[in-house]
Amino acid sequence: MQLLKDRIIKDGIVKEGNILKVDSFLNHQMDVVLFEEIGKELKRRFSDCQVNKILTIEASGIGIACMTAQQFCVPVVFAKKTKTKNIAGDVYTSKVESFTHGKVYDIIVSKDFLKPEDKVLIIDDFLAEGSALLGLAQLVEDAGAQLVGAAIVIEKGFQEGGARVREKGIRLESLAIIKSMDEKNGIIFK
């Protein structure tokens, strides 16, 4: 998606440790016009899948998931990283490790919101090591629902996440795949 790649080049900042800072438009301040275009592109790519539920993880994937859900006219479910008092009843849980935060989380989705009849599209902002995406896929499997695919805004193609996800047979659509990046040479796309 050229619009996204152009924005990454213009406003993305490469930080030490394979960190790409895109918080000015993607995951702190959100460019909703860009998000709308992302939603349209993901609808185009997954229009053949009869998606009836979109699943993401809090917090950075929620805005993108909502704009995409608007295109599909379906609800968004987001996995929470902590169980709160307002989640009553049974839940699906999975462990994920955040590359950016260096933490392991138990992610939680109420069993009320993932059902065997669901056709689920997973959406997230980044794919690095693949832990979050595979954790979300585990929730879908535990629910007996059908995972139709996963959509990622930015995939770090030089890290193992994409390969791990594809090896599991999950249809993966990444809007921008970064081949390499460093502070000196910047960002190079595949």
UniProtKB/TrEMBL annotation:
<protein>
    <recommendedName>
        <fullName>Xanthine phosphoribosyltransferase</fullName>
        <ecNumber>2.4.2.22</ecNumber>
    </recommendedName>
</protein>
<keyword id="KW-0328">Glycosyltransferase</keyword>
<keyword id="KW-0808">Transferase</keyword>
<dbReference type="Pfam" id="PF00156">
    <property type="entry name" value="Pribosyltran"/>
</dbReference>
<keyword id="KW-0963">Cytoplasm</keyword>
<feature type="binding site">
    <location>
        <begin position="128"/>
        <end position="132"/>
    </location>
    <ligand>
        <name>5-phospho-alpha-D-ribose 1-diphosphate</name>
    </ligand>
</feature>
<comment type="pathway">
    <text>Purine metabolism; XMP biosynthesis via salvage pathway; XMP from xanthine: step 1/1.</text>
</comment>
<dbReference type="GO" id="GO:0032265">
    <property type="term" value="P:XMP salvage"/>
</dbReference>
<dbReference type="GO" id="GO:0006166">
    <property type="term" value="P:purine ribonucleoside salvage"/>
</dbReference>
<comment type="subunit">
    <text>Homodimer.</text>
</comment>
<feature type="domain" description="Phosphoribosyltransferase">
    <location>
        <begin position="53"/>
        <end position="157"/>
    </location>
</feature>
<dbReference type="InterPro" id="IPR000836">
    <property type="entry name" value="PRTase_dom"/>
</dbReference>
<dbReference type="InterPro" id="IPR029057">
    <property type="entry name" value="PRTase-like"/>
</dbReference>
<comment type="similarity">
    <text>Belongs to the purine/pyrimidine phosphoribosyltransferase family. Xpt subfamily.</text>
</comment>
<feature type="binding site">
    <location>
        <position position="156"/>
    </location>
    <ligand>
        <name>xanthine</name>
    </ligand>
</feature>
<dbReference type="GO" id="GO:0046110">
    <property type="term" value="P:xanthine metabolic process"/>
</dbReference>
<dbReference type="GO" id="GO:0005737">
    <property type="term" value="C:cytoplasm"/>
</dbReference>
<dbReference type="GO" id="GO:0000310">
    <property type="term" value="F:xanthine phosphoribosyltransferase activity"/>
</dbReference>
<dbReference type="InterPro" id="IPR050118">
    <property type="entry name" value="Pur/Pyrimidine_PRTase"/>
</dbReference>
<feature type="binding site">
    <location>
        <position position="27"/>
    </location>
    <ligand>
        <name>xanthine</name>
    </ligand>
</feature>
<dbReference type="InterPro" id="IPR010079">
    <property type="entry name" value="Xanthine_PRibTrfase"/>
</dbReference>
<comment type="function">
    <text>Converts the preformed base xanthine, a product of nucleic acid breakdown, to xanthosine 5'-monophosphate (XMP), so it can be reused for RNA or DNA synthesis.</text>
</comment>
<keyword id="KW-0660">Purine salvage</keyword>
<feature type="binding site">
    <location>
        <position position="20"/>
    </location>
    <ligand>
        <name>xanthine</name>
    </ligand>
</feature>
